[in-house]
Amino acid sequence: MTTNPGRAEIEGIIGRALAGETPATGEIETLLAIDDAAAAAPLFAAAAELRRRHFGDAVFLYGFVYFSTWCRNDCTFCLYRRGNAQSPRYRKSRDEVVAISAGLAASGVHLIDLTMGEDPLYFAGHEFGALVELVSAVKAATGLPVMASPGVVTPDVLAALRDAGAEWYACYQEIHDREVYARLRTGQDFDQRARARLEAAALGMLVEDGMLLGVGETVGQRALTVAAMRDEPVDQVRVMTFVPQRGTPLAHLAPAERLGELVTIAAMRLVMPDRLIPASLDVDGIAGLEPRLAAGANVVTSIVPPDAGLAGVSQSELDIDEGLRTAPEVAVRLAAAGLRVATPGEYADWVSAARRRRVAAGSTASV
Ligand code: SAM
Ligand code: MD0
Ligand code: SF4
Hints:
The structure is a single chain. Helix content is 45%, strand content 14%. The protein is an alpha/beta fold. It has one domain (60-258, 270-359): Aldolase class I (TIM Barrel, Alpha-Beta Barrel). Strands 1, 2, 3, 4, 5, 6, 7, 8 and 9 form a 9-stranded parallel β-sheet that branches. Helix 4 links the parallel strand 1 (58-68) and strand 2. Helix 4 packs parallel to helix 6 (129-142). The longest helix has 19 residues, at 37-55. The chain starts with 6 loop residues before the first helix and ends in a 5-residue tail after the last helix. 49% of the residues are buried. Bound molecules: S-adenosylmethionine, 5-amino-D-isoleucine (MD0) and iron/sulfur cluster.
């Protein structure tokens, strides 16, 4: 048997979480310090049990449409940072995006995530009309919920996106530590980014926050990030391991062990059992799906159709042309894991209930 000194403590945290107690920040740090598979196994089992209690065996699928890779920013981790000559640049037309989204809807995804860099086409003159219209057109063509991931935008733009039908706003802080953040999102205001999420929530939108793992942060900083998410009005929380990108300042940083991401997914599930937690195909492709599900994820994101000329973010090509980042491929893997693709109604019902809670909370909260 293992002599891991933290074992009894870990068992205590897991037992209390299964009994409905939310782990405190110090307890989150204890969980995130787990660095061997044997010690992680009971954590993963508890996370899967909490997912089952809140979501049964149903998993949600998100189609990913990265429709413009132009960006005015200089994030040190990102392939698409301004001035990276090795970045694939494209901007899809409205009609292409609508056709791609319709195809994704027909393939069985539950949501369309419309993502872009902070494209100067929109940001330079604060001209977001075409983006708002794109949201309306995608909704009309698919009938599906839409997530907007446009970067940091002002409340008037958020309100216009909401009015056009975007249920979700995604904007990831990467880490809730100002110093590490400043090394990642160079020249971008920490508070403004965090405020954009609060503003979206106050407008009645559903919101996603996310963290990046393996960028020189400590376990304590990871724990503070999960704790910040716990205390934020966010409905979906993600973690992705940093993938080094050619042509960028962090190109030669050694990537983190994947166990760290799995342990973080599971800890997030213990801390936020009823929130949506993605398994992104954008880190390890389809091969990375099973372990992320086993760690308690209940959404599969970064589903990208082949032959559409679309890229991923952290894995710009992996498994896309091969057609492995598709809903049918995901469905096969879910079945093998004893899970299933949710029905469209199950996802729509979850979104409606979450939005009712958000609006009710928003009427008493302020930004
Ligand atoms: N441009 C918008 C923005 O940055 O908010 C929308 C794009 S957002 C979906 C890009 C996200 O992908 C980042 O916030 C980051 O969490 C993740 N990401 C980008 N590059 C990555 C990399 N090299 N490895 C892992 N995750 C990465
Ligand atoms: C993903 N590549 O789901 C996408 C992206 C943006 N809202 C999501 C990071 O992994
Ligand atoms: Fe631009 Fe987003 Fe990449 Fe940062 S993460 S460089 S904002 S596309």
